[in-house]
Amino acid sequence: MSSEQTSENVQKLIKFDRLKFSVSNDNVMLKQIEATHEPDGGEFDVKPLLHLVEQIFNSATPKTDAFFDGLDLKTHDVEAFEDKPTQAGFISALEALAYTIDRISCEIRCKCSGGEEAHQKTISVLKMVSSQPWDAKLVLTLSAFAVNYGEFWLVFQSYHSNQLAKSVAILKQVPEILGRLSMLKPQFNSIKDLIKAMLEVANCIVKFREFPSQYITTDVSAFSTALANIPIAVYWTIRCVVACASQIARLRGLQGDEHPLSTSEAWEISALVYKVSNIHNHLRDNLDDCLKQIILMSKRKPSFDADEKRRMEAYQMLLELFKDFHTDNMKVLKAFIYARDNQQPLFHGRSNKRVDIDILKQTHVLLLISNLEISHDELEILEDIYNESLKKRPAIQYEIVWLPVLDQSDPWMQSSQRLFENHRTRMPWYTRHDPLHSPSLKDGAVITFIKKEWHYGRKPILVVLDSQGQVLCQNALHMMWTWKNEAFPFTVSKEEALWKEATWNLDFLVDGIDPWISDQIAAGKIIWLYGGDDIQWIEEFTVIAKKVAESAGISMEMVYMGKSNPKERVHTNIETITEKKLSYHLKNLTSIWYFWVRIESMLYSKISLGRTVQDDPIMQEVLKMLSLDSSHEGWALLSQGSEEVTKARGDSFLTCLSEYNQWKVNVPQKGFLQALKDHLLQIQPTHHCNQLELLVAAGMIPETLVCSECGRKMEKFIVYRCCDV
User: Fold this and answer.
1) Cα–Cα distance for residue pair 160/182, rounded to 1 Å
2) Which alpha helices (H) appear in 23-173, and where do they start and end?
3) CA proximity to 141, closest of 241, 222, 5, 286
4) Is 115 helix (H, G, I), strand (E, B) or coil?
5) What gap in Å lies between CA 496 and CA 321, rounded to an integer?
6) According to the model, what pLDDT value does residue 303 have?
7) DSSP class of 220
C-alpha cells in the first residue's frame, strides 16, 4: 500500500472517530446512560468474577499458527486463579448472579444477530443491569459475553477430537470457518484487540473501588474526575462487547465468497479500540494520581493502619461468630453488649435498673437497632405489641434489646444524653447501657458489621436472634407491623404461612386498630373509609355523602383515616372534623401513622418474599391503597361489613355522589351499593396517572413496580421533600 493510501485511510479513520466518538457526543450520551442507572444499594465483590472472565478469554482461542500467535490477554496472574473461584463465597455469589448473566448472554446473542443500531443494543444491555453499581454492570456484561465467546471456541477446539462437538460445529458452520482461516485472521486479531482493551478498562475501574476511604475521598480531584468518567467508560466498553458479539455472529453467517470484514466495519473496530484505549489511559493517569495521594496520606497517618487493622480483626471475629453453632445466645449477645468499668451492661426500662446480660440466656432476643431519632410513633406501637406479648407467655416469649447507634456524623452532646435517657426510661424492655459510637474501636467494628451484614441505614431495624444466637430474620420490623405477635418466632416460613391464610377485606385492613370500627364491621354496617389532607374536599365529600345516604334511606358510617406520615395538617383536619361533626376519625396521629405504615409493611413483606403485582391479588390491593394515599388528593373506600365494595380517588366519588339523580333509578333493582359502583365505573376516566411514594430509607425498594390498574411498568423518580405541615 502506498504512503498516500495509508495517509488517506488514517484521515478517514480520524474523521470517522470524530463523527462517532466525540466528547460532545459523550456528554449528550451521558444523560441517556445515567437514565439507565437505578441502583438498589446491593454490592458484591466483582474481582473473582473478572478473574474468571480473563481466564476464559485467555484460554478460548486455539494456539495454532493458522490463526494468530497466541492470545495474551493477561492483566493478572490467571494461572494462580484456579483456587480462587472455588471459594464458598464466590460460588454462592455466582449462583445468585447466574440468572442475570444468562439473561445478558441471551440478549447479546439475539441483539447482535439482528440489525439494531449499536448504541441501542448497548443501552438495552445497560437497562438489564440498571440496579447494579458501575463496576458490576461491566463485569457482568463481560461475563455474559465470555459465556458466548467461550462456547464458540470450545466447539471449535474440540471439532477434531469429539464427535458431539463435531456435530454441533457443523450446525454452527465451523467447517465453513475452518476453510477460510487465512482470510479470517484480521477479524480474529480485531476481536483480540477489542477484548484486550475491554479488560484493561475493566481492571482499572475495579481498582478504583478498592481504594481505602480513610485515605481518599471525592475531594481528591483525580478520584472525583475518574468517578465522573466511569459511566461513559462502562458504556463504551459494553459497546465493544456489542461489536465483538456482532463479529462472532457475522462469522457464523458467512456465505461463499462474502468478505468477512468490510472497510467501514474495520474502521469502526479500529476506532473503538482507539476510543477505549484512550479511556483506559485517562483512567490509568487518574489511578496513578490517586495512588500517590494514598501513599502521601498513609505516611501522614502511621497510627491509623494499626487501629484499622484491629477494627477489621474485630469485624472478622463477628463474621466468624455467626458461622459457628452455639449452645446458647450468650457469646453472640456479649459481642454486641459488653460491660464497661465492670458495670452491668443492660438497663431494664420497666424496673428502671441495670441488670446483667445473663438474664437473656436461652431467650429469643429482638435487637432493635436505631439512632436516637427513633420516632414516638414507632416506640408507642412497638410498646403496645411488646406488652401484649407479655400476656401470652409462655406461648409467645421474646425480649427486646435496644442498641442505639451513633455515627461519627452524630456528635455526642448533652442533648444527646438526655434524649438517650428519655428513650430508655420509657421503653419497657432492655437497652444497652450506652450507645454504640464509631470512634470506639470495638463499637466501630460492631457498627460496621450491622451496616454491612444487616443492612442498617438510618431507619430502625429489628434483628431476630433465636435462643442459640442464630439470626432468624435480619429485619422483622415489617413483619411486626403487619402481623404483630402472630408472626412469632418471626421467621420467613411463619410469614409465608400467615400470608397463605390472609384474605383482603376490611377486617384485615383495619386489624383492630380501633375497637369502634371493628364493632361497625361486625354489625355489617355500610362504612366509608376516607383520607387525604385536603380539608375542602373532606367537607364537600362528607356533606354530600350524608345527603345521598339520607335520600336513599340508608344508614352508614364514615371514618377519616388521615394520610401517611401525618403532620400538623392532618391534626388540624381532625380538629375541624370533630368541631363540625363531619364523621368519626382515628383517635390520634399515632393510630393514623400505624394504619399507613402497616400497609407499607405489607408491600415490603410481599417484595421480600418475591411476590409480584401480576400474581398476587393482595399486593394489588396494597398498591392501590398506597397509590391513593400518594396522589395528594382525597380518596375513599366503600364497604359493607368486612366486604369491600369499591375504592377510588376523591374527585371520582364526589362526581358520582353529585350525580345521584342520574343513577338512583337503578337502586331498587341493583341495590344502593351496586348502583353506586356501576355509575362510578362509568364516569371514571379511561386514562389514569398513578404514583406511589416509598421512603428509600425504609429499605427494600423494588427495582421495578407495575401499575396496579393497567399493569404497565411504572417510571421511577427521585423526590427530595421536607414538609412539616
Assistant:
1) 19
2) 23-35, 47-60, 88-111, 118-128, 134-157, 163-171
3) 241
4) coil
5) 28
6) 47
7) S
Kind of pairing between the strands at 471-473 and 461-465? antiparallel
Grid coordinates of 112: 447482535
What is 431-443 written as a DSSP string?
EESS-EETTSHHH
**Which residue from 203, 205, 208 is spatially nearest to 75, judged by alpha carbons?**
203
3-state secondary structure 324-350: CCCCCCHHHHHHHCCCCCCCCCEEECC
Query: Dihedral, CA atoms, 314, 319, 323, 325, nearest 10 degrees?
Result: 40
Contacts within 8 Å (CB) and 24+ apart, 164-170: none
Type of residue at 326: H
User: To 10 degrees, what angle do helices 263-300 and 3-20 make?
Assistant: 60
Instruction: For residues 501 and 663, give the distance between their C-alpha atoms in angstroms, rounded to a whole number.
Output: 38
- Give 282's DSSP letter: H
CA angle 605, 607, 611 (to 5 degrees): 105
Q: Average pLDDT for residues 385-397, to the nearest whole number?
A: 92
List strand residue ranges (DSSP E) for 415-460, in order. 430-432, 436-437
Of the candidate ranges 11-20, 220-229, 456-465, 555-564, the one whose mean pLDDT is the lowest: 11-20
> Residue 233's closest CA among 198, 270, 208?
198
Counting every residue written for the chain, the total comes to 725
Question: What would the mean pLDDT of 531-560 be, rounded to a whole number?
Answer: 95
Cell of 175: 467447517
pLDDT digits (tens, 9 = 90+) for 260-318: 555 666 677 788 888 888 898 888 888 888 877 777 766 655 444 566 677 778 888 88
Which has more confidence, 83 or 556?
556
The pLDDT > 90 percentage for the chain reads: 38
Say which residue, 256 or 705, is predicted with more confidence: 705
Cell representation of residue 142: 463481560
pTM: 0.59
SS (H, E, C) 338-391: CCCCCCCCEEECCCCEEECHHHHCCCEEEEEEECCCCCHHHHHHHHHHHHHHHH
Other C-beta atoms lying within 10 Å of the C-beta of residue 224: 13
- Long-range CB contacts (< 8 A, 24+ apart) of 710-713? 711/613, 711/614
In the numeric block, the cell 400518594 is attached to 630
**What are the Cα distances from residue 340, in Å, to 183, 344, 434, 442, 691?**
77, 8, 9, 12, 50
Q: Identity (one letter) of the amino acid at 355?
A: V
Sheet of strand 556-560: strand arrangement:
584-585, 556-560, 526-531, 635-640, 643-649
DSSP state letters, 123-143: HHHHHHTTTS-HHHHHHHHHH
Average pLDDT over residues 5-34: 53
For residue 708, give the H/E element and its range. none
Burial code (b: 16+ CB inside 10 Å, e: under 16) for 522-541 equals eeebbbbbbbbbbbebbebb
340 pLDDT above the threshold of 90? no
> What's the mean pLDDT in 347-365?
93
Residues 6 or more apart from 122 whose CB is under 8 A from it?
Answer: 235, 238, 239, 242
* Lookup: cell for 430: 432492655
Q: In the structure, what pLDDT confidence band is assigned to residue 698 with cuts at 50, 70 and 90?
A: very low
* Residue 3: φ, ψ to 5°: -65, -35
More reliable by pLDDT, 446 or 458: 446
Phi and psi at residue 614, to the nearest 5°:
-65, -35
What residues have CB less than 8 Å from 579, skipping those under 6 apart?
none
645, 649, 653, 658 alpha-carbon torsion, rounded to 10°: -170
